[in-house]
Amino acid sequence: MAERYSSFEPKGTRWFLQRLTAGFLVVVLAFHFMLLHFVHHAYEITFMGTQARMTQVGYFATMVLFLVTATFHGVNGVYNALVNQGLSGTRKTAVKYVLVGAGLLLALQGTRVALAMTGMDVTF
Amino acid sequence: MSQSYDRGLIEDFGRWQEFSAGMWAWVLHKFTGWVLIGYLFTHIAVLSTAIPAATGDPAIYTGTLQSLEELALVRVLEVGLLSVAVFHILNGVRLLFVDLGVGLNAQDKSFYASLVLTGAIVVASVPTFISGAF
Predict the structure, then answer these.
(1) CA distance B23 to B10
(2) Where do the domains of chain B lie?
(3) Is residue A74 part of a domain?
(4) Which of A37, A50, B86, B131 makes a 20 to 30 Å CA pair with B121?
(5) How far apart, in whole angstroms, are the C-alpha atoms of residue A97 and residue A65?
(6) Residue A9 · residue A15 · CB < 8 Å
C-alpha cells in the first residue's frame, strides 16, 4: 500500500473542487508567468499595455476566472491546512468565516481591478 | 489503492531528519501554498493602482509597477516567487496523478523529479527575471 499524505478528507465536495481548480490553475498560472515575464517583461508593463490585453473578452474572462479559482484554491487550502493542524470548535467556525470574508473581499477587489484595467471607472 | 497515513506530529520539527520523501513533499507543498496565497493578496493590492489610473493618471499604475521592478530586491523576490510557483505546480500535478491512482509506486521518484525540474526551470529563468536590474 502506498502512503498517502493529504490535509483533505478525500472525495468530499471541497476535495473535488480543490482538484478541479488545481487543474485549471496549473495551465493558467503557467500562461500568466510566460506572458508577463517572458513575452512581455514585467519591467515594461504599462497601463496602456494592460488595458489592451484586458479589453479582449477572452483574456478578461480568463483573468477573472483565474482570480476566482486562485482565491478559492488558496483560501480552501489554508482552511484545510489549519483544520489539519488541529483547529476545531468555535475557533474553527470563526476561522472559516474570516477566510470566507477575506476570500470574498479579495475576489471583489480583484474584479474591480480587472474592470478598471479595461478603463472603466469603478470608484464609488 | 492509496490509503490515509498517520503522519504523526509534523509540528515537532525536530523530527525533520526522520522525514520521508512524502513528508517533505507535504511540507513543501504546504509552505509554497501559504506563500502563494499571501502573494495573491499583495498582488491585487499593488494592481489596485489601476483603479485611479483608469479615471485619471495612468502613470499611477505604470509608475508603481516600473518603480518596483527597478528594485533589485523585488527581482530577487520574483525569482523566489517563481520557485515556489513552479514547485507548487509540478508537485500539484504529481498529486493529481496520485489521486487518479497513477504512479503510486513511483511517488518518491516523481517528487525528486519535481524538485530537479523546478531547479532547472528557475535557473533557466533567472537571466530573464533579473535583466536590467543590476
Answers:
(1) 9
(2) 20-130
(3) yes
(4) A50
(5) 22
(6) yes
Select from A45, A112, A121 the Cβ nearest to the Cβ of B65. Answer: A45
* B20-130: CATH number: 1.20.1300.10
Of the candidates A46, A50, A123, the beta carbon closest to that of B55 is on A123
- pLDDT of residue B2 exceeding 80, the answer is no
**Distance separating alpha carbons of residues A52 and A118, to the nearest angstrom:** 8
Say if B121 is an interface residue toward chain A (CB within 8 Å).
Answer: no
- The Cα–Cα gap between A79 and A99 comes to 7
pLDDT for B4 beyond 60: no
Judge whether residue B103 has pLDDT over 90.
no
A42 touches B at CB < 8 Å: yes
Interface of A with B in 45-64 (CB under 8 A): 45-48, 50
pLDDT of residue B95: 92
Whether residue A30 lies within 8 A of chain B, CB to CB, comes out as yes
Q: What is the pTM of this model?
A: 0.88
Q: Domain containing A42: what range?
A: 13-117
In chain A, the number of structural domains is 1
More confident residue, B4 or A58: A58
